Amino acid sequence: MLKLVYEESPSLLGEVLSALVGQDIGDAVGVEFRQQERKGGSVPDGLIAQRPFEVYVETKQFDWFYDDQIEAHLRALDSSGPGLKVLLALSNFEEDDLDRFKTIHVLIETTFANRLAFGASTFEDLLEALRALELPPSLRDTVGDFAEYLDHGGMLPGWRTLLDVVNCVTTTHEIAGGVYLCPTNKGAYQHLRSKFFGMYKDKAVRLVAEIEGVVDLLSEDEVSVRWINGQFQKAEMIKTARDKHREFRPGWFPHRVFILGQRYPTMFLKDTKGGMRGSKQYFTVQATSAQALAEKLNGKDWSTWLG
Questions:
Q1: If you average pLDDT over residues 119-135, what whole number do you get?
Q2: Residue ending a domain, choose from 133, 152, 171
Q3: 97 and 147 part of one domain
Q4: DSSP string, 200-237
């Protein structure tokens, strides 16, 4: 995809790289044309030049990057000659951890004296950078095909359109308190990352909320943040999860804590026979907030929605 963009216009590739790395490096990509510019003891009528640049791209479907591997790439870049040097890490990063590559940024500032540029971006960031370009129709169509490829490969954050409906017959009091809790060590409780949570009881989803984040409490001291959807800072989310766990399930480990935002009542009816199959079910939805989703689902039935 980047090759096609470059063939259309080197400056367009420069725009994409600038967006992904967070630095204005576009001027270093492409051929320069200048007139009557003194070079040493001569002044040629015209000058055509292209400064050297080199970009390493390391991609992973999940965030399995290791500092040692990234450092090896940086050392190889630094030793490869003059010019702009960029290392781009692309992945479907699920956690918004601002300190994720802190060691790498320190390494670039110290060991490499800021001779290199580094950016860690999601595939969605790449797609947004491509869509922001002024492209001809044929290449815009190719970007659309690329988006489908990423989506089918699970490399885009489809969680933003997922409603996780959970059978909550015995846990409504906990949900009223702003959390859903479940074990971490049973297959039935393995949840896909989702934007919205739906409380199912008595043949209907009766309220929805945004999932602010999910924390696994493995023991009294051991904790793992699975994902952060909302505006919580990591430390704040861990504290909230521990406080709610002590309130509702003290001493139960390991346990998963879904931290929920404001809950909104709705009546999303299961119109087929019997109860839910299994403990959860997913629906694809389009809504900007839990309140908007509650209004959209209210009075609808599952068959019509799924149809």
A1: 90
A2: 152
A3: yes
A4: E-SSEEEEEEEEEEEEEE-SSS-EEEEEE-SS--HHHH
Does the pLDDT value for residue 187 go beyond 60? Answer: no
Whether residue 301 contacts residue 271, with contact meaning beta carbons closer than 8 Å, is answered with yes
> Based on the domain organization, do 147 and 108 belong to the same domain?
yes
Domain boundary among 121, 136, 152: 152
Between CA 120 and CA 118 the distance in angstroms is: 7
Q: Which residue range is the domain that position 192 belongs to?
A: 160-306
Three-state secondary-structure class, residue 105: helix
d(CA 23, CA 168): 48
45-101 tens-digit pLDDT: 888 888 888 999 999 877 778 889 999 999 999 998 888 899 999 987 755 555 678
pTM listed for this prediction: 0.59
- Same domain as 297, residue 195: yes
Number of domains in the chain: 2
Please say whether the beta carbons of 121 and 20 come within 8 A. yes
- Residue 28 has φ and ψ, to the nearest 5°, of -85, -5
User: Is 189 found in the same domain as 137?
Assistant: no
Nearest residue to 198 (alpha-carbon basis) of 134, 280, 95: 280
User: Which residue bears the tokens 């040629």?
Assistant: 44
